Amino acid sequence: MLAVLTARAAGDPDPTIGYEDPETGHELKCTLCPAGTRAKAPCTRTQPTDCAPCRPGYYTKHRNFLDRCLPCRAPCDHNQRERQECTPTTDRVCGCAPGYYWRAEQCMRHTRCAPGFGAKRNGTEHQDTECTKCLHGTFSEGNSEHAQCISHTGCTSPQFKVLQGTSWHDDICASCTQLSNGDSTAQLLHVINRDGRTHVRAVFNFTHATFLQYSRITFKKLIYGGQTIFFREN
């Protein structure tokens, strides 16, 4: 039974389309061209449809009677990746590249969570990153679409807490030896710089005595918001 069905299927005639011969006015049944080709010339009473292959950059996906192949979509943009290439039988299909998602007919970069915010839901090709504010006792340095809020590290002996962690930076720990050698200066200045003017006074109130002990420079300059701030030992 299977062999009979297969034989019948294989013996089915190619699909045709009605076509009126402009010279004679006769109604003809022209065979459709296979996918990947086009009808270069319609059939006549004595000749079948003349099919020609699609040239590079063009395609036909199904049997057709088109006199021209369809142009493939333009090459994918820099923020896209090619999911299906242009072939004689398939159009080019582009999708958003990693780090981008589809919105308003274009690929948009995933939102990077700001300092103090972590990624509650990572972005995908179809949705943006969802950021959430870090809860008390957790932090995220931000500027990332993947970083999540993590717990403050805490300090262990012989180190002690020089600066309390916030939602955007971890606890800063140091031992007496590190403070006397100035090993934590750069780390502390980095934190002050990221927080800006509003936090500078609090940092000095909290660390003033030890900061003067391990400072090795008379002037410390920080750039924040295009302004230059100087710290000077008294």
UniProtKB/TrEMBL annotation:
Gene3D superfamilies: Tumor Necrosis Factor Receptor, subunit A, domain 2 (2.10.50.10)
Protein location: Secreted
Domain TNFR-Cys: 53-94
Keywords attached to this entry: Apoptosis, Disulfide bond, Glycoprotein, Repeat, Secreted, Signal
Disulfide bridges in this chain: 54-69, 76-94
Cellular component GO terms, alphabetical: extracellular region
Signal peptide extent: none
InterPro entries linked to this entry: TNFR/NGFR_Cys_rich_reg (IPR001368), TNFRSF_decoy_receptor (IPR052459)
Mapped TNFR-Cys repeat ranges: 53-94
A GO biological process held by the record: apoptotic process
Record-linked SMART domains: TNFR (SM00208)
Main location: secreted
Pfam family, any one: TNFR_c6
Protein name: TNFR-Cys domain-containing protein
Species this protein is from: Astyanax mexicanus (Blind cave fish)
